[in-house]
């Protein structure tokens, strides 16, 4: 019988656990998504309400970075002798933002239910009853 390296067995067990855990979490996520009501969200991540019904264009405003600067925290981190790679700050940070219109040309999300139309009921053909006078005794007359 061949001998197996214990670390190989451990790696295989961890990998199998990762696969099983991933499948469980994926199924849980799908069940949770089924319970939530569907939202009319376009591929541009904006709601249907932001899309003009006549032209289809998205009218939402987005905050976009227009100027980046080198992160000053990175220089301090590089000077530190006890630095950890996991603590490394981002190399560049946003310095200036600008509002820009979304570039989406057409709504591509799920279609909402159609609008229900019920015609207004007409009462012209119905004969209305005449008002009835209350009895004289009820009014205090004799």
Summary of the model, kept short:
This protein has 142 residues and is α+β, with helices and mostly antiparallel strands. The protein has helices at residues 6-35, 72-79, and strands spanning 61-70, 92-101. Helices cover 27% and strands 14% of the residues.
Summarize the structure in words.
With 142 residues, the chain is α+β, with helices and mostly antiparallel strands. It has a domain at 1-36. It has helices spanning 6-35, 72-79, and strands at residues 61-70, 92-101. The chain has a two-stranded antiparallel sheet. The model has no long low-confidence stretch (mean pLDDT 82).
Tell me, briefly, the overall form: elongated
List low-confidence stretches: none
Q: Structural class per helix/strand content?
A: alpha+beta
**Strand order of the main beta sheet, please?**
1-2
Distance between the termini: 118 Å
Q: Round the mean pLDDT to the nearest integer and report it.
A: 82
Order of helices and strands: HEHE
Question: How much strand content do the residues show?
Answer: 5-15%
Number of helices: 2
Q: Main sheet?
A: 2 strands, antiparallel
Number of strands: 2
**Oligomerization state:** single chain
Helix content: 25-40%
Tell me the radius of gyration. 34 Å
